[in-house]
Amino acid sequence: MDHIAAAEERLVNERLRQKLNEVNAAAQSHLAGVQDHINFTLQQAYFKCAYECFDRRRKQDEIGNCVEHCSTPVLHAQNLVENEMAKFQEKLQRSLVVCQDKYEATKLQANSANPMRDLESCVELSIQDSINIMPHLAGKLKAHMSIRD
Q1: What confidence score (pLDDT) does residue 12 get?
Q2: Which residues of the chain have pLDDT under 70?
Q3: DSSP letters spanning 111-132
Q4: 84 touches 140 (CB < 8 A)
Q5: Within a 10 A sphere around the Cβ of 25, how many other Cβ atoms?
Q6: Looking at residue 120, what is its pLDDT?
Q7: Longest dimension (CA), the chain
Q8: Angle between helices 60-108 and 43-53 (to 10 degrees)
């Protein structure tokens, strides 16, 4: 690989990292309300509920069961977010693997003018599709948790 191609590859890799950072920023932005709901509304309700569980008239196992019951909404919400984000990340990863496969195939063909540009274009499209999905994912989570904007 010559120096120009190596420099171009480094530049493209840096731009790709920036694009992935854009996805992370979009996810944090769109999911801020969901995280706020979990971290404050649900956690606050959990601690209030758990506090009420500690009654000297209750047996230790009753207290444990009560506290466990109080934690259910928080755990359910956290699991829901984790599962949806795992699906989102898996879908993004699959689309990026397709881009990588296209890039590898294009490099083998002598008629391709600029395989790096094709890779960057493919990744840009995948990233943009993921960013466009984020509001819908956040809306789905908010609806499931009955969060009103």
Answers
A1: 76
A2: 1, 5, 110-112
A3: T-S-HHHHHHHHHHHHHHHHHH
A4: yes
A5: 12
A6: 86
A7: 81
A8: 150
